[in-house]
Specification:
One of its GO terms (molecular function) is phosphatidylcholine lysophospholipase activity. The chain is α+β, with helices and mostly antiparallel strands. The chain is about 35% helix and about 10% strand. The protein starts with 6 loop residues before the first helix and ends with a helix. Bound molecules: 2-acetamido-2-deoxy-beta-D-glucopyranose (NAG) (10 copies). One 2-acetamido-2-deoxy-beta-D-glucopyranose binds next to helix 4, helix 5 and helix 17.
Length: about 700
Amino acid sequence: MPSLLPTGLVCLILSQLSPSATSQRLPQIQQTSVTDYAPFTNVDCPDFSTQPLLRTFSAENQTLHPQEVEYVNTRSQTVLPRAWADWLGDGSSLGYTLSDFQNNFPKVGIAIPGGGLRAAQYGAACLEALDARNDSAKAAGTGGLLQVASYMTGLSGGSWITGSLFFNNWPTIEKLVFGDENLSGWMLDIPFVTPDGVNLFSDENQWFFGSLLWSVMAKAETGIDTSMVDPWSRMISYHFLNQTTRDNFLTNDTAHGAGQLWSDIPKLPTYQSYQAPFPMVVADARPVGSNLTTALGLDATVYEITPLELASYDPSLSAGMNLTFAGTRLTEGRPENGTACVIGLDQAGFVMGTSAGLFNQILDFAHDTIRDFSADDGAGMLYVLSRLLRSVRTRADDVANWPSPFTGLNAGRFQDSAANWLELIDGSSNGENVPYAPLFVKARAVDVIVTAEGSADIPGLNWPNGSSLITTRARQATLLRLSHQQFPPIPDKPEDFIELGVNARPTFFGCDPRESPPEYPLVIYLPNAPPFNGENPVANTATFQLTYTIKHTRKMFDQIHNNLLAGWVPNSNGADPNWGTCLKCAAIDRARLKQYCYDPANPTNKSQLPNRKLEFVDPDPQGIDRLGGFFSRSKFALIGAAIGLVVLIAALTFGLLWWKKRKNQEAEYKKLLNDPGWDAEPLFMQHATHRRMDSYELK
Ligand SMILES: *[C@@H]1O[C@H](CO)[C@@H](O)[C@H](O)[C@H]1NC(C)=O
Ligand SMILES: *[C@@H]1O[C@H](CO)[C@@H](O)[C@H](O)[C@H]1NC(C)=O
Ligand SMILES: *[C@@H]1O[C@H](CO)[C@@H](O)[C@H](O)[C@H]1NC(C)=O
Ligand SMILES: *[C@@H]1O[C@H](CO)[C@@H](O)[C@H](O)[C@H]1NC(C)=O
Ligand SMILES: *[C@@H]1O[C@H](CO)[C@@H](O)[C@H](O)[C@H]1NC(C)=O
Ligand SMILES: *[C@@H]1O[C@H](CO)[C@@H](O)[C@H](O)[C@H]1NC(C)=O
Ligand SMILES: *[C@@H]1O[C@H](CO)[C@@H](O)[C@H](O)[C@H]1NC(C)=O
Ligand SMILES: *[C@@H]1O[C@H](CO)[C@@H](O)[C@H](O)[C@H]1NC(C)=O
Ligand SMILES: *[C@@H]1O[C@H](CO)[C@@H](O)[C@H](O)[C@H]1NC(C)=O
Ligand SMILES: *[C@@H]1O[C@H](CO)[C@@H](O)[C@H](O)[C@H]1NC(C)=O
């Protein structure tokens, strides 16, 4: 179908007619048409001898991507000192003197879990309550925590906020979600799957489906397998990326986010100015060939997608792939040949769709239904999928298909070593709905992890029950002992979380580490919870609710905001006036440990202790002051006298010894001379070398 040939492909074919001999020239990915969703295949690879695409390390000796280290360090040196000061002032209200820390602040990460649009909205409202730019949050003392964070992770619905913030240039949450004269907002009142309402065959819905399919088929034409995750990724892009407005929603006037790449984040102004935490998105891998349609085991590989890499710090893999080239198939780190590289697979929509792709668990091929989606949304998804499958081949319909760059690595340990595709699925598929894994990676040395916990766990009620934390703790205690920090102490069972009420109010886990450096970070757990003041809850909606009225979203944000600014007071429906201060204390607390505890991995230096005198000075020399004064005034005279005394004693001793020796020799010589049986000559010669003997003889 030639009319579907994307402009990108045409460019590629033209560029291949004039092959570039040595220097690598990458095709320019446009952001003008929905077909810019197509990656470019068969592009020149970089010179592998100098620029490998794959980075491998080991669990015992982890390395981070150098550009990540650069970003986090530069941000912590240039942006964070002001952010901490803006939040904590001079520290005196907490009993600290902030300047004493000399910019040695705790490293803070924020985790935003999955759960569709509920989790996305909970996470966003939570960020707003921690955002210094929000007046009421700032006044309550909670606003400012977002600004001091070094890392931010998103999973599924949580990844949508992460992407949305970056690709809209880090606006306030208010503008991002509700829009202003420049931004369209998330437009959650426009149904995700069927923007024109339930009639799949209305003209508008058909145009919309046509646009989605035009994108996905452009990708499929390159030979890279697509799946249901691709149209899903395109739907996500319409709401969370920046090119879609109410007016152009049902047009082909813009690319609707196609061509915006996750690996382009480093080029965005927010990143260039080190304004935001370093973003990471989590996805799981279904073992290729398993065809699993249930939850994954703990040993399934967990991936992170950063602006730099598709990577896994699981000991079984311990490798990262240059994200720009993430569609490239590598075997033991090498492409098939010098022009077998792929760029442009890391579409922002596809990254967010991959992290949120749980179709393998809800798509029922036998009955042609999608569990959990509303009947209308499910019908819409299946309709689009069926039209897709009619036109293109696909290897696995229900997962995100990523050509594998990790083939041949760690055979016997890495689950997909023999596969040349990765089957990436929703990051929550192994039971870890909170994207903790990247934040616990030892090399990142995160001190404080804020959890914007919007999981829906308790059946029918959709509040969190800690099951994700329990799962992460189990994974870290077994498979990730070498690579990740431990999890702080938490209740053992979801029933306990509920019984203790720690899932229904802000809770800090890990306040009292036993080791130095601490064996685990401090986890600040901010669960989506029933309103503290007894109001009717409006934020515990179902994961698969894919449409919200503006009014509902507004109400949801306000309620979450009030709850997070209130903290809790035992046995009361009142707000805690000290909550903001308490949160500040928790965030800064590990700085005290950092300053005072011995950490073999981060040794201090005695040069940090300037102007210290080492010589003992007797504060109270014995004797009366007058005498002390005499001694110090006559110091040199006294030293001279002491030396004179020593010389005198030495001279006397020497003289005595000489005299004694001379007497002995005299006696011996006389004895020899008087002995007639001896030949005196040799003995005399022997003694002649002796000066004192000479002098004796001269006498
Ligand atoms: C750790 O890895 C780095 C980078 O690969 C390497 O330079 C260093 O020698 C390794 N250290 C140890 C102890 O293996
Ligand atoms: C702060 O957040 C609340 C809750 O979403 C919102 O109502 C308010 O408008 C925000 N204020 C600012 C200045 O953004
Ligand atoms: C959308 O964001 C991109 C950066 O990802 C930027 O280049 C572009 O100008 C933005 N478009 C609109 C319509 O704001
Ligand atoms: C909208 O964008 C224009 C141009 O960048 C800017 O001058 C204006 O302040 C923006 N409006 C708002 C509400 O941010
Ligand atoms: C955009 O163009 C494609 C291909 O011609 C078409 O299938 C689709 O319906 C169009 N979408 C809209 C909203 O007009
Ligand atoms: C998984 O599905 C593929 C393709 O349908 C099939 O060839 C393979 O045998 C299946 N594997 C298992 C373990 O069922
Ligand atoms: C990816 O590879 C290209 C080409 O070698 C290089 O310019 C770029 O810096 C690499 N990106 C990362 C994040 O390593
Ligand atoms: C290089 O690899 C690509 C992708 O596998 C293939 O299409 C192309 O024909 C190969 N070129 C050569 C010269 O082998
Ligand atoms: C806790 O959450 C898990 C997973 O979300 C769920 O399967 C389980 O039924 C929940 N248990 C309780 C007691 O809420
Ligand atoms: C301590 O600091 C001094 C001066 O900055 C440096 O020369 C020395 O190598 C450092 N020692 C250690 C053990 O790092």
